[in-house]
Amino acid sequence: MKFACLLLCLLPFAAQADIYKAVDADGHVTYSSTPIKGGKRLNLLPPAETTRDRSRGTAQDFPKVNGETQKERDGARRKILEDELKAEEGLLSTARQDLKSANPKDQEKINTLNSQVELHQGNVDALKAEISKLK
Fold first, then answer.
1. Sign of torsion, CA 42 46 51 52?
2. d(Cα 71, Cα 80) in Å, to the nearest integer?
3. Taking the alpha carbons of 74, 80, 83, 88 in that order, is the dihedral positive or negative?
4. pLDDT-derived band of residue 36, with 50, 70 and 90 as boundaries?
5. Per-domain residue ranges for the chain?
6. What whole-number distance in Å separates Cα of residue 54 and Cα of residue 66?
7. Is the pTM of this model over 0.90?
8. How does pLDDT run across 51-73, given as a tens digit for each residue?
9. Taking the CA atoms of the chain, what radius of gyration do you get in angstroms?
10. Four-CA torsion 68, 71, 72, 78, nearest 10 degrees
11. Helical H segments across the chain, by residue range
């Protein structure tokens, strides 16, 4: 009788199995209860409920930063962004020169260099936008 009770208590744990998901090169999805090469284990348990801990502080509880400290931080941030911009502009210039000097018959090399130019141009644009937001 004790064995039967123990078996019944353990039954829910035996019913729970790991599920694995794999996506092949063609985009076909495969699910399995055993590990699959290149597959990932799925977590099918519902997310744990959370409650807000009222003992933690709110935004009003955080210490204020005085104006001088904030100016120093903003200045340091501006310097970092300007240094990054200068470096990125240098990389963009180099990528453009490499693209100009590339053999027109080497289309793969040209495509790679075009990608580099686009990447560096995007970085320059993003850095300029970020700098423009500073006070």
1. positive
2. 14
3. negative
4. confident
5. 67-133
6. 27
7. no
8. 666 566 677 777 888 889 888 98
9. 29
10. 180
11. 2-15, 67-101, 107-133
